[in-house]
């Protein structure tokens, strides 16, 4: 049973390394995030509150009534056969690569939009906590 403590120590060390590396986003993920920010536009409409529009590649998503009790989310264009597509993940809108492209990245690679704040986040956890 001497191997059990050694296996546990290796496992714990590998978790620490992954967690510490996950805090620093890879440059490709940061570039994707910045690309999404440049495709984000929000405006206040007197009758409907804050409305935001997001484009990344050919994906187009909009949120009416951001931060309200029941925001309206529209997937204006999203096709899983194109570079990116949009899905809902844990009450956030995730804009992610197609499956073949996602195989090249970590599982949280994408951008995540909160209907509660209208802001773009790099991880689903950050997005969920914002709402």
Short description:
This protein is of the alpha+beta class and 131 residues long.
Question: Topology, pairings included?
Answer:
Blueprint: H1 3-22, H2 27-38, E1 40-45, E2 49-56, E3 59-64, E4 72-77, E5 84-89, E6 92-97, H3 99-102, E7 111-113, E8 120-121, H4 124-130
Antiparallel strand pairs: 1-2, 2-3, 3-4, 5-6, 6-7, 7-8
Walk me through this protein's architecture.
The chain has 4 helices and 8 strands. It has helices at about 5-20, 25-40, 100, 125-130, and strands spanning about 40-45, 50-55, 60-65, 70-75, 85-90, 90-95, 110-115, 120. The strands form 2 sheets. Strands 1-2-3-4 form a 4-stranded antiparallel sheet. Strands 5-6-7-8 form a 4-stranded antiparallel sheet, sandwiched between helices. Strand 3 and strand 4 form a beta hairpin. The longest helix has 20 residues, at about 5-20.
Number of separate helices: 4
| Main sheet: strand order | 1-2-3-4
Number of domains: 1
What class, by secondary structure content? Answer: alpha+beta
**Secondary-structure element series:** HHEEEEEEHEEH
Beta-strand segment tally: 8
Low-confidence stretches: 4-22
Which percent range fits the helix content?
25-40%
Major sheet attributes = 4 strands, antiparallel
Q: What assembly state would you assign to the polypeptide chains in this entry?
A: single chain
Mean pLDDT: 81
Distance between the termini: 46 Å
Shape: globular
User: Over all CA atoms, what is the radius of gyration?
Assistant: 18 Å
How much of the polypeptide forms β-strand, as a percent range?
25-35%
């Amino acid at each position: 049973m001497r191997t059990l403590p050694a296996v546990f120590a290796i496992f714990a060390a590998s978790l620490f390394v992954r967690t510490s590396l996950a805090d620093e986003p890879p440059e490709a993920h940061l570039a994707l995030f910045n690309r999404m920010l440049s495709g984000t536009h929000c405006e206040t409409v007197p009758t409907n509150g804050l409305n935001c529009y997001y484009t990344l590649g050919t994906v187009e998503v909009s949120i009416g009534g951001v931060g309200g009790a029941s925001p309206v989310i529209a997937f204006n264009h999203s096709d899983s056969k194109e570079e990116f597509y949009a899905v809902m993940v844990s009450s956030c809108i995730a804009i992610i690569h197609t499956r073949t492209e996602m195989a090249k990245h970590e599982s949280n690679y994408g951008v995540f939009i909160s209907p509660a704040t209208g802001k773009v986040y790099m991880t689903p956890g950050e997005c969920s906590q914002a709402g």
